[in-house]
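Hi R.,

Here's the input for the EPU complex you asked about:
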Amino acid sequence: MDKLLITGGIPLNGELRVSGAKNAALPILAGTLLSETLVSVGNVPHLLDITTTMELLGRMGIGLTVDEKLNIEVDTRSIGSYLAPYDLVKTMRASILVLGPLVARFGQAEVSLPGGCAIGGRPVNLHLQGLAQMGAEIDVRNGYIHARAKRLKGCRLVLDLVTVTGTENLMMAATLAEGTTVIENAAREPEVVDLANFLNMMGARIHGAGTDVLEIEGVPSLSADGRLYRVMPDRIEAGTYLVAAAITGGRLKLKDVRPEILDAVLQKLREAGARISVTDDTVELDMGGQRPHAVSIRTAPYPAFPTDMQAQFMALNAVADGVGVITETIFENRFMHVQEMQRMGADITVESHTAIIRGKPALTGAPVMATDLRASASLVLAGLVAEGQTMVDRIYHIDRGYECIEEKLSQLGAEIRRVPQ
Ligand code: EPU
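And here is the predicted structure with EPU in place:
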């Protein structure tokens, strides 16, 4: 297993291009299952989770071609199986996103039930409930979800809580249902909007994406006719590099970014003392060599502060001036990075879903272990500012969600390298 070796203490400085969004690319690739003709997806990040999704589609018999610009062309006409097997689902929970499209278009799906996860239980009951309300027969046995439907029927769905992939799965299923589906309490995340735009490009009739009520008029079929859809930029990758610059007292210009979907994160960075300026597709941050001020955060569904940025701000608070309070409301176990940061000298007390972080002038480098994707990123950030060397183990988590992280950070002047095992 590769590790990342970081020597801390260098203020980052430079420019970076933000990659395509993992959490938009994954549902969009699953959504290609709905197209009766060729469809191309561009600006797809080069990540382990994308490779897993391609393997999943490939095993169903779907034709996949990657061209010289790294666009992925998908041909669903050769599909021969409707199975998402355990060995893939266990490595990537987002595999559940093929369930809605498979049942809607082919009337059948067999998808391994994802198990628990390092950050929480993460059940998929709302995905299944919604499909059942649309008329699918759902049977869970031997660890697999078996779903069948002649043609799904539009209906009114009121989601018990805001779920991102749940909203995406049901929205995809509803595109081909008979009649109109209304999804209330839908997730408003920009990745849901990106998926809706992609589906509408193929002829879907989705209204209200970006609000908490989606209305989807079912159509008999969807077809991209070979068109290309470019995935939106990754707001969490963007936020992570902005924190990297802020935590080291550095400067950063991000290109190919959408500042308007980063409001909650930019607000907290301003509170931490960063000077920030934006254009339509760039964000510049300048920390002016200053130590950040502590900030308090409460995670919640979009447009509030994203849970996927919580760990990174924990690292920032660990070296900030003052005391920060972070409350995690989305996942019940998303503080696994705390113990590792404590090994680097951080002063953090956790009480239930709240962490109290008393900032210290410095952390000290240590060997630490990544437990999930965003936790790993936060340990890299802590390593960038710690005195001495930090070795981050189990970085396969990082490779699931950050494209070439060590190259991008090196480009900004960081001393970081991958140590193969
Ligand atoms: N939930 C249920 N039942 C369901 C679905 C969700 O109880 O049927 C609960 C979850 O257990 C959780 C809450 O609802 O407590 C919200 O979970 P959600 O379904 O929104 O999460 P997700 O769709 O599984 C996506 C992202 C996550 C991100 C969350 C929250 C993708 C592929 N994953 O997960 O991204 O943290 O939304 O914004 O889009 C990451 O990129 O590191 C990551 C974990």
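One thing worth noting: The mean pLDDT is 96.

Cheers,
M.
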